[in-house]
Amino acid sequence: MANKAFVALGIVLAIAGVSLAVLHVVSVGAIVIDEEWVREYISEVPVDLTIYHDSIYVLALSDSTGASLYKISFSGDIAWRNSWSILNESHLTRLIPREAGISVVIISPSRHEVNVLSYSSYGGLVSNKSLVLSEVVWAFDASSYVDGSIVIVGTRYSVGRGLELYASRINLDDNDTYWSITWGSEGDDVALKAVITSSGLIYVVGESLGVGGIVACLDGFGEVLWSRAINVTDFISVKALGDDVLILARGVDGSYGVIKASRLGDVGVVDYIKVPEDFTPLDLHVVSSYTALAGYQRSIGGNASSAAIMLYTNKGLSNVIKLNVPSIFTRIEVFDSTMYSVGVAESRLIAIAHSIKHSELNVIQLIASTAVASIGSFIAYREMHRR
Asked: What is the pLDDT of residue 371?
């Protein structure tokens, strides 16, 4: 006679072993996140973040007239911090890595002048370049080209056509303009952001009064390869992915989404990235295996917010990182399998590092799970066939 208790035990062991083995195999490649460190600094708001020459650089704003540049080690310690005064309502745009160190781009309140402050890796001010633009040109962003020159985008007034999209490429060493172009529709157009790929393609996003959002691709000689209208009202962040770009934007319905634009002119929404309604993204970072959105998540009552990062794979939302204090993340970068985020927590500038790994096949766990399943199957088979 079969012992029903042993049969049941064998079946349970067999099911458990098979389930564990399947679960382990299926989870291979899943994102695994571990917090490395969190640092708090003084009361400033981070504006930009970049990783360059094995260091973290953070551009921050203390008030409308005070700016700071941090160099931070990969362990979160401050190597140096430089502070200076800027004109009221000046526009701190971004950090630009350069061969000798790091540069800060500042656009004047009138937007007719672009200043580039260059610092050495030791924190010394190397140069202060001023690029004075025409009175009919307004700058909104600047980005470094692959050869060290600078690409400025914005808008220019043309008689009979109004405001057109504007882009120029300028040599910082002698202020020589390689090229300057305008393009766009019959309405008032403005280019808001520029991103350069490693191969030298220039992606420009902007707005048109008559069309809405615009994304365009230029080559290094200033030729517009293509320009497309997209149904968005606000561009949040633009990042390169090879020769393509991902664009974090807010649509006309108020929801956030990510748009991919390829070098061939294909532009479309990334359908596997669904932004939760209670999450406001402020920055985007993309690598080959996942996309990260950094920002803040509102509480149920809407009275407080917590800094949050949403990680997406091509299967959808994979992981959520969240701080349990009033806070926001403003910028995010990834370097060598570590994700660095900066933001504000309880009025203080913070930086946080997470290791990002993919789970691997553990042969020992797989063998153990298979052994459990085999033992359970043997027990159940033996008891069911015992006379």
From this structure: 62
Residue that has been written with the tokens 């959002």 in this structure:
213
250-255 long-range Cβ contacts below 8 angstroms, 24+ apart: 252/212
Sheet containing strand 78-85, strands side by side: 45-52, 55-63, 66-72, 78-85
Residue 386: beta bridge partners?
none
What local confidence, expressed as pLDDT, does residue 288 receive? Answer: 76
Site of tokens 């005064």: 85
| Phi–psi pair at 290, nearest 5 degrees | -160, 165
Q: How far apart are CA 209 and CA 188, in angstroms?
A: 5
10-residue averages of pLDDT along the chain (387 residues): 56 57 51 91 93 93 86 96 87 84 92 94 92 95 92 92 93 90 85 95 91 92 94 91 93 91 93 93 89 89 83 92 91 92 93 82 57 58 60
Which pLDDT score, from 0 to 100, does residue 98 have? Answer: 81
